Amino acid sequence: MRIAVLSDIHGNVPALDAVLEDIERHGVEAIVCLGDHVSGPIDPAGAAERVMALDATAIRGNHDRWVVDPSLRHEPWSVDEYARAQLSAHQMGWLASLPATAKLGDAVFLCHGTPSSDEKPWLDNFFDGRNTVLPSEAEVEREAVGLDQPVILCGHTHIARTLRLSDGRLLVNPGSVGMQMVRGSPDAHYAIVERRLGKWQTALISVPYDTEAAARLAKENGFADWGDAIRFGWVGPESLG
User: Fold this and answer.
1) Among the four 57, 80, 111, 183, which has the fewest Cβ within 10 Å?
2) Nearest-CA neighbor of 174 among 5, 58, 2, 12?
3) Can you list the alpha helix ranges (DSSP code H) found in the chain?
4) What's the predicted TM-score (pTM) here?
5) Where is the Calcineurin-like phosphoesterase domain positioned along the sequence (predicted)?
6) 143-173: buried (b, 16+ CB within 10 Å) or exposed (e) per residue?
7) What is the pLDDT of residues 72-123, one digit of tens each?
8) SS3 for 107?
9) Quick one: which of 152, 195, 196 has its CA closest to 174?
10) For residue 32, which of 125, 98, 123, 114 has the smallest C-alpha distance?
11) What tens digit of pLDDT does each residue of 24-82 get?
């Protein structure tokens, strides 16, 4: 079985379109989307439309919760508010209906951050300036207790990583489709996980797209500060509002 894994689109339709076009070349049998679909300054409604049209298993991320109910966030984030204003009632209903976690058959478990929290990072601690730190083996293992699927998927940190637990289970973060930070790679990122000869394996994929068009849309929508993050992938999250 071959599965395309998308996460953290953040309303970036040019990046999403490039990823979906690339996926067509790989002949996948399923697509999963790990949350934070719409919160961004480029085209939230377009991103929702595309994800809704996929025959995909989708879950919500922390920003999806905050778009649906801004009272859940301690401090308002302007791109959440922008996304909320752009979505139709039908799209908001879809976003509100998404589960926190999901399973794909008996083999794959989906979460946004960790199985217990869509705000907690799992495979990397979140950015501290330019730095990220891989948690200890014990910390990573602890979050997987009680899951018996051989493949566990998460997002949230925007950092692509794949690793294995001591029992051989595969953990994968595909990185972010729509918003790259700190690492200096502006390309759209996603992953393919595949069962081959009885074993699961990962391909972390980076797809170039028209970042200038995406940055221009962000500026036109009132979020010029997102431009350098989109164009170059070096900006940290503290500079985005």
Assistant:
1) 183
2) 5
3) 13-24, 44-53, 62-68, 78-86, 89-97, 137-143, 211-220, 226-232
4) 0.95
5) 1-194
6) bbeebebbbbbbbbbbbbbbeebeeebbbbb
7) 876 767 899 999 999 999 999 999 999 999 999 999 999 999 999 999 999 9
8) coil
9) 152
10) 98
11) 999 999 999 999 999 999 999 999 999 999 989 999 999 999 999 988 876 767 899 99
- The one-letter amino acid code at 93 reads G
Residues composing the chain: 241
Confidence class for position 219, pLDDT limits 50, 70, 90: very high
CB neighbours of 109 closer than 8 A, spacing ≥ 6?
101, 102, 103, 115, 147, 149, 151, 152, 153
Q: Whole-angstrom Cα distance, residue 106 to residue 108?
A: 6
With b for 16 or more beta-carbon neighbours within 10 A and e for fewer, the 20-38 pattern comes to bebbeeeebebbbbbbbbb
Reduced to 3 states, what is the DSSP secondary structure of residue 179? coil
Residues 6+ apart with CB under 8 A from 213: 14
**At a CB cut-off of 8 Å and minimum separation 6, what does 41 contact?**
11, 79, 82, 217, 218, 221, 222, 223, 226
pLDDT tens-digit profile of 5-30? 999 999 999 999 999 999 999 999 99
Please state the domain extents for the chain: 2-239
Distance CA 184, CA 159 (A): 11
